[in-house]
Amino acid sequence: MAFYVTTPIYYVNAAPHLGHAYTTIGADVLARHMRQRGEQVFFLTGTDEHGEPVAQAAEKLGISPKELADRNAQRFQELMPRVNASNDFFVRTSDERHKRRVQELMQRVYDNGHVYKGQYEGWYCPRCADFKTDQEMGPEHTCPIHLIGLELEREENWFFRLSSFQEPLERLYETQEDFVLPRQRFNEARSFISGGLQDVSLSRANLRWGVEVPWDSGHVFYVWFDALLNYLTALSFARDGEDLTDVMWPATVQVMGKDILKFHAVFWPALLLAAGLDLPKRLLVHGYLMMKDASGKDIKMSKSLGNVLDPFEVMDKFGTDALRYYCFREVSFGQDGSVSTVTFGHRYESELANEYGNLASRTLAMISRYRDGVVPSTDADPVLAGDFETLTQEVSELLDATEITQALEVIWQRVRRLNRYVEERAPWKLAKDPEAAEALDVTLRSLADGLRVVTILLHPYMPETTTRLMDAMGEEEGFSLSGARFGTARAEATVTTLDPPLFPKVP
Ligand code: MSP
C-alpha cells in the first residue's frame, strides 16, 4: 500500500526553529514506522518561497527575494538530515517545475468555472500572508499571531469561488469523521464552514515574487494557492523521469500545526474539488510548542516573537534522538504544551539515560560478564511474554490512528517493565548460584529479546540510537516490524558492551 505523508512547506523569511523540526519529526516517525511495515512510503517536505513575507524580508536586507530564498531554503534543507528526517524529496516553490504545474492546475480550476474577477478590501497580515476576518482579528486591527498591526488593502483581484463549496465541504465533514485529527480541530474546521464560506482572493496584482497567473500576466497567485499545491506538484518531478502522482495521490496523512488549519481543512479540499482531484485521507494537526516568556506566561514559540529554542544547540549537546524523543514525550502530539531546557534535562536523565540507556547497558554488560557475550539459546520467559504479546499490534494501531505520543507511551511501559524484570530476577544473584544457571539463561535471553523488541519499535522515534544498539546486540535482521515479536530472537547472537552509553552524562 502507498503511504504518502507531508509536512507544511516552511517559509523562508526566517531560519528554522524547533517548531519546524517538531512537525518534520512527527511526519518522520510515521514515515519510518510505515517503512518498517513494508509499505511504499513517500515523505515530502520543503520550503514556501513566494509572497509578501519573503519579498519584504528580502527588501529589508537589501537583497533579491531569490537570494534570500536560496539562502534560507538551504538552512531548511540542512535541518532535514540534522533531525534525521528521512524525507524522500524536498520541494521548493521557486522551482520552475513547481511553477509550471501550479499554472496547469490553476488553469483547470479556472476552466472549471471557479474563478472570477472582483474588488477586494480587507485587513491583511503580511506575516501570515492572510486577510483576517472580523472573528480572526485581534483588538484594533492587529494580528493575534504576530501581534502586529494589520494593513487595510484594496485591490482588483481574481477570486476563488469558495462559497460554492459550502455543501460539498459540509458533506465531507459529515461523512469523514477522521478527515481532521484531533477531534477538537475537526470541530473547529467544521464550525468555520458552517459559519458560511466567503469567496477568497486568489491573486495579487502588486507583487512580482510569485507564480504568474496564466490567464492574466499582471497577477501572481496568492501565495497560499501556490503553496498548497506543492503537495501535488512535487509528485510530478520528485523522481527523475517518473510521475508519482497516480501512485501517491491522495496523500495518506498531511501533518501541520494548528495555525494553518483553515488553509488545509477548508481551502485545500475546496481547491482540490475545484480541480477535480481526490482529497487527502487525513489531516493531522498538532498544537503549539510554547516557551515561558519573561513573566512566566506560556507563549507560542516563533521567530518573530524572539523566544526560540534552538534545535541545533540542543542536538549538538544531547544528540538528535534525545530531541526527537523529548518532543513527543513532553507534549502530547495534537495538544499545546510547554517545552523548556529544564524539562528536557529531566527527561534526558531520568528516562533516556536511566531507563532505556541503563536497561541497554546492563543487559549487554551482564550477557558479556556471565555468558561471554553470547545470548543463551533457550526459551524466553513466559512471565514476560504476556506483557509483550499484543505490543507490536498496539503500536501499529496507534500509529494508524496517528497517535504518536500514545504509541511511544505503550512502548515505554515495556521499557519500564524490563527494568522491573531485572530487579525481580536479580541476575547478579543468580550468577552466584551454580544451580540457577538455567534461570540465568532464561533471564538474559528474555532481557535481550525484550530489549530487541522495544528497540525495533523505538526505531522511528530514535533512529540513530536504536541502530547503534541493534549493532551492539549483534542483531542483523534490521528493523522490519515483522521481527518485533517477543521470543523470536536469533539464538546465540554475540553482543558487545556499550561504551560510551547510549545517553551519556552531559556536563
Ligand atoms: N508556509 C506556510 C505553510 C504552507 S503549507 C502549504 C507556513 N510556514 S511556517 O514556516 O510558518 O510554518 C508553519 C508550521 O511550522 C506550522 O504549521 C507548524 O507545523 C510549524 N511550527 C512553527 N512554529 C511552531 C510552534 N511554535 N509549535 C509547533 N509548531 C510550529 O505556515
CATH H-level name of the largest domain... which superfamily? Answer: HUPs
Q: Stretches where pLDDT falls below 50 for ≥5 residues?
A: none
CATH class of the largest domain: Alpha Beta
Molecular shape: elongated
Number of helices: 19
Mean pLDDT comes to 93
Largest sheet: 6 strands, parallel
The largest sheet has its strands arranged as 3-2-1-12-13-7
- According to DSSP, the number of beta strands is 16
Explain how this protein is built.
A 6-stranded parallel sheet has the order 3-2-1-12-13-7, with helices on both faces. A 4-stranded antiparallel sheet has the order 5-4-6-8. The chain has a 3-stranded antiparallel sheet with strand order 9-11-10. It is elongated. The protein folds into 2 domains: 2-286, Rossmann fold; 336-483, Isoleucyl-tRNA Synthetase, Domain 1. Helix 11 packs across helix 12 and helix 12 packs across helix 13 (341-371). Helix content is 48%, strand content 16%. Helix 10 links the parallel strand 12 and strand 13 (283-286). It is α/β, with parallel strands linked by helices. The structure holds 5'-O-[(L-methionyl)-sulphamoyl]adenosine. 5'-O-[(L-methionyl)-sulphamoyl]adenosine (MSP) is lined by residues 8-11, 19-20, 22-23, 48, 227-228, 230, 256-257, 259-260, 288-289, 300-302.
Spell out the blueprint of helices and strands.
Blueprint: E1 2-11, H1 18-36, E2 40-48, H2 52-61, H3 65-82, E3 89-92, H4 96-111, E4 115-125, E5 130-132, E6 151-160, H5 166-175, E7 180-181, H6 183-194, E8 200-201, E9 203-204, E10 212-213, E11 216-221, H7 223-228, H8 230-237, H9 245-248, E12 253-257, H10 261-274, E13 283-286, E14 289-292, E15 298-300, H11 311-318, H12 320-330, E16 337-338, H13 341-371, H14 382-388, H15 391-400, H16 404-425, H17 427-430, H18 437-458, H19 463-472
Parallel strand pairs: 1-2, 1-12, 2-3, 7-13, 12-13, 14-16
Antiparallel strand pairs: 4-5, 4-6, 6-8, 9-11, 10-11, 14-15
Helix pairs in contact: 2-3, 4-8, 5-6, 6-10, 11-12, 12-13, 13-18, 15-16, 16-18, 18-19
